[in-house]
Amino acid sequence: MPDVITHPARLDMTRYIRPGDTVAWSQACAEPLTLTECLVAQRAQLGSLRCFLGIPASRTVGPQHADHLSFLSYCGSGSNRALYGAGALDIVPCHYSELPGLLARGPLRADVLLLQLAPADEDGNHSLGLAHDYLAEAVDTARVVIAEVNDQVPRTRGPRVLSPASLDVVVHTSRPPAELALRPADMRTARIAVQVAELVEDGATLQFGVGTLPEAVLRQLHGHRRLGVHSGMLSDAAADLMEAGVITNERKTLDRGRSVAGLLMGTRRLFRYADRNPAIELRETGYTHHPEVLAAQRRLTAINSAIEVDLTGQVNAEVAAGEYVGAVGGAVDFLRGAARSRGGLPIVALPSTAGERSRIVTTLSGPVSTARCDAGLVVTEYGVADLRGLPLRARQEALLAIAHPDHRSALEQALDTSGVPA
């Protein structure tokens, strides 16, 4: 049976964590804030630790904590950006679908897991609450599992529950989970969202990435019918569509009647809606991102954003103006899944400019996050470029047509003398 701590201030992490350990914790709204705050406060006593971070919804860690802690992540969003800018964060460039194996068995294997769980049910088992995601598999391989059981965390449906025997330490708390509220879409983002929404067919199953643009697309779908969800995350806008009867999941090939996601990313509005809701099921990354599962979903429509796209269809979703702000993430997993899905649509959407710079470019300013062989539909406020099956010259013409008009001439002049991007 686990050690049970009813007063969080009495948690002594030196009893469970050893110098040199790799520590991982649930990301975004599922971050166990009491445990991560304790880790940071006790870092000098704990010694040198390697910490794996996901998408942050808090500012628990900062560059000042790199005196004893080293940080790794697959992404540069939120407060991770400050860590990276200070040289305190190293990036693991990998597909999201690889994370469970890396953290459970691979070179990033977690020695210690910090989780936030819902209160026990009548059988004494704990729901994983706000995230199944990429840490569920590591529960079985970590040396120590420390759980913050928070009575304000929703009980969500999923195939995995944790019994007391799965836990080494239980810390009881009562505090609001971290929230991720997105800023409202501006007029340009709304125009892009309208373009994307027009591509979505009734009865489609949706995957949507993180950020203001995918959320804006969801808010344009209230006139649609019988939509489904199979995504890495579920948001406030998706909950609104479920409550409005737009997302019913009745046409899904798999998991009919249920919205499937890896984690909840939003506000208390979403958490309340998901609590004990049988129409929402959280699954581990090995299922949400599995290529065969994705390909089996008819009309899987993958909606992801990007930093820039070159004239061959290569996508940079990681680096902007020399700063690591994004991720390889799950975009390639879902774009490939949608491409293999019967009637599926692999969509990348982005504004045509960032300040005075074009985001349709001849040469990417960052890494190739998505190869041109995986290119599908690219959408800006100026239209849709369907690159599927197009040779290079035709791709060039299609992408120039959706670039900002002020940049089209310069883009044409910058091309090779052959007229075909390399």
From TrEMBL:
Task: Give every Acetyl-CoA hydrolase/transferase N-terminal domain span.
Answer: 66-161
Please indicate if the UniProt record lists ATP-binding as a keyword: no
The record's Gene Ontology biological-process terms are: acetate metabolic process
Keywords attached to this entry:
Hydrolase, Transferase
Q: Which Gene3D superfamilies match?
A: 4-hydroxybutyrate coenzyme like domains, Acetyl-CoA hydrolase/transferase C-terminal domain, Glutaconate Coenzyme A-transferase
Tell me yes or no: is Chloroplast among this UniProt entry's keywords. Answer: no
A Pfam family that this protein carries is: AcetylCoA_hydro
Task: Please list the residue ranges annotated as the Acetyl-CoA hydrolase/transferase C-terminal domain.
Answer: 266-414
User: Could you tell me one molecular function GO term of this UniProt entry?
Assistant: acetate CoA-transferase activity
Similarity comment text for this entry: Belongs to the acetyl-CoA hydrolase/transferase family.
Name the UniProt record assigns to this protein: Acetyl-CoA hydrolase/transferase
